[in-house]
Amino acid sequence: MTSGTITLLFLLIIGFVSDSTLIATAACLLLIIKLTKTFRFFSLLDRRGLEVGLIFLMLSVLVPLAHDNMAYLDLLKKTLSPHGILAMIGGALATHMNGEGLKLLKLDPQLIFGMVLGSIIGIVFLGGIPIGPLMAAGLTALFLEVIYWFK
C-alpha cells in the first residue's frame, strides 16, 4: 500500500469514528479513484474541484431567492438593517481574506497540509464544516501578519 492509500484509509476511519460524512465521503471517493486507477480525475479535481464545490455552495445559499420566498422590500430592509450591513462587511472582509489566503498559498504551497489537518481537527472536535482552504489560508495570512507586527 502506498502512503496516499494509507492516508486516505486513515481519513476514512476518522470520518466514520467522528460521524463526519463529509470526510468519509471525500476519502472514500478518492480511494475509489485511486484504486480504480482513474487518475485523470485527480487532475480534474485538482484544477476544478474547488470551483465546482463553491458553485454548489452558492447554489444552496441562493435557493431561497429562486423560490421567491422573500419579498424584495423585505430583502432590502434586511440588507440595510444593522445585521445586514454587518453581513455585507463580513462578506467583503471574508472575500478579501480569501484573496490574501490565495496569495499565501501561491508563495508557500506546503502550508496546505497544515490547513487540511487543521480542517480535520475543526470538523472532528469542533463540529465545523469544511468549505475550502482559502478561508483557512486567509486566517493563516492574518495570523502571520499579526506575528510580523510584534517582531
TrEMBL record:
The keyword Membrane applies. Signal peptide: none annotated. Its main location: membrane. It is found in: Cell membrane. It holds the Pfam family DUF441. The keyword Disulfide bond does not apply. It comes from the Bacteria. Keywords: Cell membrane, Membrane, Transmembrane, Transmembrane helix. One of its GO terms (cellular component) is plasma membrane. The chain crosses the membrane at residues 6-33, 49-67, 111-128. It is a multi-pass membrane protein. Belongs to the UPF0756 family. This is UPF0756 membrane protein Desru_3035. It comes from Desulforamulus ruminis (strain ATCC 23193 / DSM 2154 / NCIMB 8452 / DL) (Desulfotomaculum ruminis). The lineage of its organism: Bacteria, Bacillati, Bacillota, Clostridia, Eubacteriales.
